[in-house]
Amino acid sequence: MKIIIDQDKCVASGQCVTAAVDVFDQRDEDGIVVLLNDNPPDDLAADVHQAAAVCPALAIVVED
Amino acid sequence: MSVLIVGASAAGLSTLEALRRKGYQDKVTVLGAEWHPPYDRPPLSKQYLAGTWDEQKTRLRPDAVLSSLDAEFVLGDEAVGLDVVRRTVHTASGRDLQADSIVIATGLKARTLQELEGVHVLRTLDDAAALRKDLLEASRLVVVGDGVLGAEIAATARKMGLTVTMAGPQSTPLESQLGRTIGGLLTELHKQEGVQLRLGTAVTGLTENDGRVSDVELDNGDVLPADVVVVALGAAPVTDWLAGSGLTLDNGVVCDSRCQAGQGIYAVGDVARWHHEGLDSLLRLENRTNATEQAACVAANIVGDVQAYTPVPYFWTDQFDTKIQVHGLPSADAEVTVIEGSVEERRFVALYRRADRVVGVLGWNMPKQTRLRRQQHLVAAA
To answer: Could you tell me which residue ranges the FAD/NAD(P)-binding domain spans (chain B) (predicted)?
Structure first.
């Protein structure tokens, strides 16, 4: 699994962090997404897909 | 089994994606009134209008991803009627589309004042393209409306170098949603950035010159000269095509707590007014995150994973360099308390309380901290 984030598209909603806290975080200063792990273990796959699905800016792409 | 989704914007596309994620493998058809492949609306008043994003970047998904969803997209054809018993949608071009489940995702139509050259609304990509084209040749813009969309357009146009006036009946921008404390800060923000505010006064009409708008008239007798006018006075749910169908239509498609409007018929997104069990009342939300979250619930109900839809509402708005995040349901009459950061530094989190209950959490340039406070005050508390 490979995760690609687009910080330019990110609107700082933090929905991805709520969905997968071990994989995503937000910058303290402006809330923009930070990727903690761009190739997380398979047991997090469902959470990561959920994060990509709920992102209101479609700023997360997951390649299986 | 088959599903027909009427509407090819965020809510409709999200329903399709959620169905596929849940393993639904049968036929799905998506009917869209516009010719454009599904695109996102929040950037239209900001990055797209400003010209920093092109049309391609507003697309919800690239073509390859759309193809992989294995759905039939019928675009450029509008739904004009619904036969509830036969679960068939009639379209403007004469198609009859039948399915076992129908999802209504027809969204909103912008209200306008009158059809005149130079007068715009902003709802669709075509609207945004036409407005941008006009703004590039204009010097004076009047925004009629003091809500989220009006304030965002005013900010974008100001950054494009236009002389901008925002006019509306409220005493501050977004007053009815966020109250006067936060509204007052928005007033200051817009003034600092050079937007002229004519608030607390209703717009009574437009003046034309040779078929093109020339002025905006206010109820106090003032006249605002304008090259371009944007009408941002809200939008109405697109339900006219459902008249006579037997579905309950009242400020949207009225649904039960599972977003079901009738046997095998669901509504999702801006058009859906459903029973929120947590609030024990009907609620209709016009925001981007609701489109996705409600779509997930509708898809679950279609595949038999029956569930009620009880979200914590959320919207954001970006105006100039200020990012505002709003969780829950704040209101103008709620008590506002800053709990983190400082108003002076224009970086804070505030709680909205009614009857000693936290009903909303608002962040001003503090998105991460606002999300954490949301968890603490709106999710954990519930």
So the answer is: 1-295
